[in-house]
Amino acid sequence: MKELFKRLIVDFQEKEIEIIPRAYTLPIETSKIVSLIGVRRSGKTYLLYEMINKLKKKGLKQNILYINFEDDCLIGMNYKDFDKLIEAYFELYPQKRDEKIYLFFDEIQEIAYWEKFVRRIHDTLNANIVITGSSSKLLSKEIATSLRGRTISYEVFPLSFQEYLRFRQIDINLHSSKSLSHIKNALQIYVVKGGFPEIVLEEDEDIQSRILRDYVDLIVYRDIIERYKVKNLALLKLLIKYLFSNPATLVSFTKLYNDFKSMGYRLSKDTLFEYFAYLNDAYTCFITSIFKSSVKEEQRNPKKVFIVDNGFNYIYDTTFSPDYSKLYENVVFLHLRRRFSQIYYYKSKREVDFYIPSRKMLVNVIYDVKDKKTLEREVQSLIEGMRYVGSESGCLITKDEDRVIESQGFKIFLKPLWRWLLEGEEK
Description:
It holds the Pfam family DUF4143. Helix content is 47%, strand content 18%.
């Protein structure tokens, strides 16, 4: 096993990796264990590569130990082999025992009891450690128990719109008509097909669809079925199809349970809750609750469900025309979720799509506001929400409206989605 480790270590050190920088600022020189978690294929590995390239530029190539625990060469590896990995590295570079080394462990959750090893080497070696994983529940649970006080975690999502433009080599110049035309065209594609890096770099539409379906299969079989020993595969697939086909939708789990039962599926409410929790743990779906002062009231009301990338809707949606209103809302949620962990929707007489308590921020999303009644409804819902939470302004995200409405002492900023997504990102 040591010889295999030595080969993997040296082969990686000699490998030249070209990367497109992401909009993440990750610490390399920190005494904490850095944890990157997120859905599969969101770009966690390439964030490691980006950190590694910076170290190589400093002349620290031999100080780097990178291992991808999903490498088929490591099938059968167990907890006891971790010590052999460290021994193999120091047999290659005995002089590095007196220097700081940098350990990058990719998809480390594949090895049982990994947290014990990471905790031990963090406490005993002069090493900076970065780990990645594709299960929020696994990493958060283990970090809370075994790595307490030793780690800082970062969530990794598919590409933001700003990153998407960078991947497609589109300049962000909001004062250039030429640049704006490219940005608006790119947004329509991004809204429909999402931001998984591999999809953005692939031009063939058939291959794009095949890749996205492979992602779903990988998440379902590796991150859910194998990990949680799911027995009712048909129910899980039905739930996935429903959620991916209906992003940004209010869901009553009682109604969903009754609907599935009427279709002939054998299930309990507990099973439905469990399967949704599995999808949430794998970073494929997210929920927002209604904003209420009572937890009981929050639980009693329907949840609004969002998906981690619009590309999953692209492969499940069977309609002839995309529902841009829902797709816009899902993109807005993902943009907010990158910045805030606590997101709600507000509803009294009227509904507001998003409320961020930490900023008293209220956001509504409507694709087309040409109809005056539609616009008035959205404005009034924001005013009701602003009056309730004590905010003086709200935001209405649209396709192309860019103006300010003042009403009843409140300001509502109408902004095109492309501008709202890129605010502060212009060169």
